[in-house]
Each structure stands twice: as C-alpha cells, then as structure tokens.
Amino acid sequence: MQKWYLYSSMKRFLSANVLYPVSSPVIPDGILVLDGNGMVLDVIDPRINLESATALKSAGVVEYFDGILVPGFINAHCHLELSHLRGKISEGTGLPGFLKAVSQLRSDEDEIIIEAMKAADQEMSMQGIVGVGDISNRAVSLSVKQKSAIKYHTFVEVFDLHPDYAVERFEEAVRIQAAFRDNGLSASVVPHAPYTVSERLLQLIGLHAEVAGDVWSMHHYETASEHDMFVSGTGELVSFLKGTGRYDEWMAKGVSSLNYTLPYLPANSPLLLVHNTYAGEADFNHAQALSNKVWWCLCPAANLYIEKRLPAVMEMVARNLKIVLGTDSLSSNIHLSILEEMKLLTGYFPSLSFEEILASATLQPTHFFGWDNMLGSFTVGKKPGVNLLFEEPFPQWHESVYRLTPTTQVRKIV
Ligand SMILES: [Zn+2]
C-alpha cells in the first residue's frame, strides 16, 4: 500500500462502474488518482492491485459514480464566430444555400457575437469538451479563448478566389494569426476550402505553413457539386460562386479538388479534412498515399443539417483512416456536444464500437493537434479532464459491450 494516497487532501480518487483510459484497456471499478490540478498520478486496476484499491475504498476517500469515466472530449472543428447564428438558418438548404445564408447573416455587432461565443464556450465546457480546433476569420474570439478553460487551436481561415486579392487576404490572415500567437494562443493560417481560394492564395498559405510547421485544416467535399466544379466546371456550387461576382474566371481543373490541392500541402504539416460527406474511394486512396499526414473530421449532425447526408463512415473505418469528430458551428447544429455526435454515429452505424468512437473523440485528435502529452487519455502526467457518461438506470456492465444510447448524458467531473 502506498501510504501517500491517504495523506493528501488535495488529491482526488475517482471511480465508476468502468474506467476507460483509452490508451489502455477498460478497467471495471478502476480508480483514477488525480492531483489538485487534475493531473493523472495513477490509474489503479483492482484486478492487479487489489490491496491499494481496497485500502482506498475502506479509507472512504474514493468518489464513486454510476456510469463510465472517460477523458475530456476534443472538438476538432468548430466556428465560434458563428455562434450568434443559432437557429437562424433553416435545415436542408444544401451547401450553396447555406454559404449564401451565412454570408448574409454573419455581420452582427461584435458585442452580440462575443456574448454568443462566451455562451458557446461555456456550453462546450459543460459538455465535457477540453480541446477545440476553431475556425476564425477574425480575431474577435481572442478574448473568449484567453479566458476559457478549454484549450483552443485557431485555424485562421482565408478565402478569396480572385488571384488579385491573394496577397491582401494572406497578409490580413498572418496579422490575425500573430494576434493570437502574441497572446499565447496557437494559430495557423488555412484555406477555407479548395473551391474558395485561388492558386496564388493556396501557394502563399502553403509556403507559410511550410515555414511554421503548422497544422492544416480544410473543408472537403461537403457537397457533391464541389466535384463537378473541379472536374468539369459545372454544377450548383460554381454557379453560386460566379453569382457573387468575384469568381467569373473559374476554370475546371480536370481532377478532384483533393487531387488539385494536395500538391500545395506542406511536407511537414498534418492535414485535417473536414466533413468529407461526398468523399469516396479515389479520395481515400489519395490520402492514404500521403501516409500518416491526413486526418478525417466527421461532423455528422451538421452534415444532416445542411445536406441531409452522412459520409461513408464504415468505408473510412475499414481503411483504418484517422477519424476525429467536430460539431461545426451553431449555424449548422443545434448543439456543441461531442457526445451528441458520438450518439448520432452510434445510431446510424451500429457496427461502430464504443471504443472506436471514443478514440475519435479523445486520443486520436491529440495526435493531430500535437496535444498528446496533455489530453486524450488517462495516462500518468496528462491533465485530460474527466467526464462521466451515465444514463438512468445505468445498465448492467458486461465486459466490452457498452454502447451509447439516445439517453446517455455527460457530466464534467474535472
Ligand atoms: Zn466548418
């Protein structure tokens, strides 16, 4: 028995029906030992260390919960800046209709936007989210992120398909990136999507990332007409973009958007492809040819909201692609909850295991963001946050067969 356990009032000893460290197998009745700052000191498996577990329980220091303890969640794709658009855009518009609505609605007073962002940040924290990859077009979210308990990486997003504006847009984005970095927040400059950046702008962003070794993110195949636009220069998306008056000179590339964009990918930057609603075999093959550099972000609730369709999830799983989860923004989702995204995937793809979905919400995204040493698993030395997943009544535990249900809830414990 290690006696220090008993003499520390600052430490916490958390236990539940099951502990999911994620980086190691599940532990029925496991005990998680944390220091006063939430850092993992030990993970006790009673099947291996019965003496310690029994001593702690009989000392009355163990906080026991009905349910499952899992590490804090990571939301790999969000747009805090669009939080004030909650409930303002109708469902099922398709992507071109959605983009049009966002551009018409997004200009609100900064005060209104900041209040909505604060509420969204709070909502994510309450939902057990501890890390967020956030798309930003401005620096308006800076103060919210600085004060937040959540760890943010900001993707400063650039778009303009007209090459004459490439330098101006790029320099503006670099200034926004510097504002975040100067205030101790990580940030990288990224393209919005292959169809909203000129080749010149893509080059500038790619070279910039090459220098900084930044993580890249890009919206990808959220609509079928992205493919038509690149391959043949036709379809609803290119018609919408031409209608805005600045994209008249679009020329079909004769290849898919991913095929066109990949040559600009910096050699040392991990790439996050977001949505992938219409991505298929050819795209998976291209990505796999890039080996370990591509992560695939699923935002299933937003996909159903905008396009009423889900990506080829099981094909992605069968190929062992690195899958992470995102909520997208409150303009295309009714909540900012990774648990709700997990539940949705469980409902639509019953053969997905809880372990697979949990890894996509915790450990997998830490490899992309470079947060491996602090978040994503109950590993000694990390400060991953602790969530309780529960439902009432909590079902009888059968080894390795836990499944999320529509009534599963999350409670942030640490
Ligand atoms: Zn998005």
Q: What structural keywords apply?
A:
alpha/beta, TIM Barrel, Urease, subunit C, domain 1, 15 strands, 4-stranded parallel beta sheet, binds zinc ion, 15 helices, 414 residues, 2 domains
Describe this structure in words.
The protein has 414 residues and is of the alpha/beta class. It folds into 2 domains: 3-71 and 377-412, Roll (Urease, subunit C, domain 1), CATH 2.30.40; 73-369, TIM Barrel. It is built from 15 helices and 15 strands. The protein has helices at 50-58, 95-105, 110-126, 142-147, 166-182, 199-212, 225-231, 236-243, 257-261, 281-289, 300-306, 313-318, 338-348, 354-361, 363-369, and strands spanning 12-19, 27-28, 31-34, 40-44, 62-71, 73-78, 129-136, 151-158, 186-191, 216-220, 271-275, 294-298, 322-325, 386-390, 409-412. Strands 1, 2, 3, 4, 5, 14 and 15 form a 7-stranded mixed beta sheet that branches. The chain has a 4-stranded parallel beta sheet with strand order 6-7-8-9, sandwiched between helices. Bound molecules: zinc ion. Zinc ion binds next to loops.
What's the topology here?
Elements: E1 12-19, E2 27-28, E3 31-34, E4 40-44, H1 50-58, E5 62-71, E6 73-78, H2 95-105, H3 110-126, E7 129-136, H4 142-147, E8 151-158, H5 166-182, E9 186-191, H6 199-212, E10 216-220, H7 225-231, H8 236-243, H9 257-261, E11 271-275, H10 281-289, E12 294-298, H11 300-306, H12 313-318, E13 322-325, H13 338-348, H14 354-361, H15 363-369, E14 386-390, E15 409-412
Helix pairs in contact: 2-8, 5-6, 13-14
Bound molecules: zinc ion.
